[in-house]
Amino acid sequence: MENFVDGNEATETADWEDVGEDKIPMVLAEMAKEGKDSIYILNSIRRIMKWSAKCPEVEMKMYRPKNIQWRSSVIVTAEGKLDVAFIFSPYKSCSFLLSAIRENGIIKMENQPMVYFGVPEEFFGHLEHEIISGEFTAAWSFVFNSYWLPPETAKKFKVDVPTGFTISRLDPSHASTVNSVWPYASASSLALVYDTILVNETAGLFEEKNSRLVSWILHVYYGLGMLYTEKEYRRRGYGTIMVKALSKRLAENGAEINLLAKEDNVEANSVFQKLGFQATGPVMVIQIQSRS
């Protein structure tokens, strides 16, 4: 992210405009010009678009600054059964993003969304402070490494199914099991897991003898996620098998493959890099929560 502005320009307050549906492809094309810095947020927006098309209960809106100086910046919100926001900006300034959060009401904090920041890392602290300095706070806040997997790499994956097991999609009856062990589960996350299983690709490893689900992964709006293996089945490589199986299927269907890994999870980052995932920069994620 190498878009610099001088000190005077950086203090301007930018007004934001709602991007009409007909202009969204143009805005996404502008984002794509930022290369790997934009790829995670860009593909997440595309996933949100597909989600809202399949789930009418989810309303997506896109905003960008009216000032042409900041035109590569984008805020996308999804409201309804899914409450999230994605913020992307390549600029070495965050004053106009602060104005969007503080004054424009673009992100409806009262909905307690999960907010993803794809901005220069030096601004993470400023933006987090702005969000939690009022009547809202953070239930949690983490910095993740974002990754992208080239489709040609995924298509070459060899998926070795362990003897006595089979790989197949999850069904909605598995939603409660998945949600019960997801570290970021909330009061509304069961519905998210249920809808994800309904509308997106998933992969599960099942014992043939009793159909027990022992390992799984879902293609969530933020990329590959909710990866989990039951404790007594760990250290057998089942998690890696799940990543390969779902990535290969997504690539064959023409979908982009992204994921997030916590910065301090050395083992996970190492595994993803060995599989061919390419680092695309840090992303800060904040789960908003009311102080009351």
What's this, in brief?
The protein is of the alpha+beta class. The protein contains ten helices and twelve strands.
Question: Can you tell me about this structure?
Answer:
By secondary structure, the protein is of the alpha+beta class. The protein has 2 domains: 7-146 and 283-290, Aminopeptidase (3-Layer(aba) Sandwich); 151-275, Gcn5-related N-acetyltransferase (GNAT) (Aminopeptidase, 3-Layer(aba) Sandwich), CATH 3.40.630.30. It is 34% helix and 29% strand. The protein has helices at 7-10, 24-32, 36-54, 95-104, 124-132, 151-155, 175-181, 189-199, 238-252, 266-275, and strands spanning 16-18, 58-65, 74-80, 84-88, 114-118, 136-149, 165-168, 202-207, 213-220, 223-229, 257-262, 278-290. The strands form 2 sheets. Strands 1-2-3-4-5-12-6-11 form an 8-stranded mixed β-sheet, sandwiched between helices. It has a 4-stranded antiparallel β-sheet with strand order 7-8-9-10, with helices on both faces. A hairpin with a 2-residue loop joins strand 9 and strand 10 (223-229). It is globular, with a radius of gyration of 19 Å. The two termini are 38 Å apart.
Key features of this structure:
292 residues; alpha+beta; Aminopeptidase; 2 domains; 8-stranded mixed beta sheet; 4-stranded antiparallel beta sheet; 34% helix; 29% strand; globular; disordered N terminus
Q: Compute the number of strand runs.
A: 12
CATH class term of the largest domain? Alpha Beta
Strands across the major sheet, in which order? 1-2-3-4-5-12-6-11
- Which range best describes the helical content: under 10%, 10-25%, 25-40%, 40-55%, 55-70% or over 70%? 25-40%
